[in-house]
Amino acid sequence: SFCLDNGDHCVFGANQDNTLEIGLLFVNKRHILKTTWDPSTSGEYACWISRYGSVTVNFVGYQMAWAGMNEAGLMISTMAAGVTQSPTPDERPPFERPFWVQYQLDNHSTVEQVIASDAEIRIAAPATDHYLVCDRTGACATIEFLEGKLVYRTGESLPVKALTNSTYRDSVSAWEASLLGKNQPENNSLWRFTTAANRARAFEPSSSDEAVAYAFDTLAAVSRPDTVWSFVYDPVNLRVHFRTNHNPRIRYLDLSTLDLSCSTPVRLLDVHANVSGDISDDLVAYTHAASFAHSTRFFSQYEGVSMSPFIVDT
Which of 4, 251, 284, 311 is most buried when burial is the number of CB atoms within 10 A of its CB? Predict the structure, then answer.
């Protein structure tokens, strides 16, 4: 994941590399009452009403966002990071990792607000991911959970707006070493970070269309054989662009034209659907049956997790 500074606005790009290929694109509504699944150590559940509508891409199912952008221009992407360590359970309500992403998109418009939310909620165990978060202004932060605490970098502590599967500290060290003429990192994650960092630094502000094209070219440059999908967010124009390994045509959704009110159904689409261009008219209404079928399929394929259809449905 990375963010390009594009004149008076930014463009955000993210790849998903995974042997699991299934995914659903969701149009999430504002003004929806939600609660967490599990209580804090004091028995409290988090409860909120979504302030913003959003478009997300989800592996597991409804409300379990891997990445997305909301109507305020907040953008988040998830990346695996094996060194993460969950916070110790306390009085803050716990959130499963993808539910944490959806919570941020539901409630916040700035990077500062996402960071501040750590005082009120926490990531549930096991925390195995870290995140790149950016807002409409181009402000970005990396968010990692190291030694049981949220660690963030922003502003001057974020010399490059990018993140892969290594800690940000290790990634920047490898990138800076490469700038001094030392050997390019052999670690694939560090190589991808260095490549994305160099392209982000070399980018010169241009039109929105040119910036989106450059972002897709950057995602192609750091892709792997198991890259499943590539997303590019344009927060000023509120457009979500994407392509997948089963449908390489670039498609898009314009959030400014979507009905994000709670008076109409949530809508969704298979991320690999054989469509092109503006896919607004290709979205279908959410049903429990469709969501249940997708989640059941996910857990049947996801290694290390055995979950019966009864538990999935519950």
Answer: 4
